Amino acid sequence: MKEVLVLRDLECIKAIAHPRRIDILKTFYKSPLSAKQLSQLLDEPHAKINYHIKTLYKVGILELVEEKIKSGIVEKYYYPKAKNIVVGKKVLNFSLNTEEEQEEVCISRFENMSELFYSAAEEERLLEESIIDYHQVSLTKNEIRELNETIKSKLDEILKSREYDESNEQYDIAFLTIPMSEKEVLNI
Length: 188
Prior knowledge:
Order of helices and strands: EHHEHHEEEHHHHH
Structural class: alpha+beta
Number of helices: 9
Number of strands: 5
Number of domains: 1
CATH topology: Arc Repressor Mutant, subunit A
CATH architecture: Orthogonal Bundle
Strand content: 15-25%
Distance between the termini: 32 Å
């Protein structure tokens, strides 16, 4: 099972946009389920659940993992292709401007970074040690500035001390600080 599946075309997005299909995906936990099992868990008619499963399977969101014969009937068991399903941002970008103007209109570099991250995750190229994650660290503006300067200084030191080698795998780096709202701080 992949970590992330990025939906990059409108057919996939349309398939997952239905509320019942999202319910179906949320029902899977650690084991594959059949249409019959899903219809019982969601208290929906088997035919409706089967229709939604076929739609999700057709666009590659669900995969057929097993077939069992029970009382002469073939029961198909499905499971999501990935733990996380996200919509690729480039699918939703729209502008009537020229290509040159579109570059200027780009909302942020972070969107490009998130797309690179999703692509790497989808292709299973992410290394566990390449993701450092500290949730809701409370820092002052001065501490953030100091941390930024330290990271920039260390990065400059690393880049100046080595020779460029095309055979080395290349990585993009992102460091992002986001101010928390008062409500978010109270919920910690």
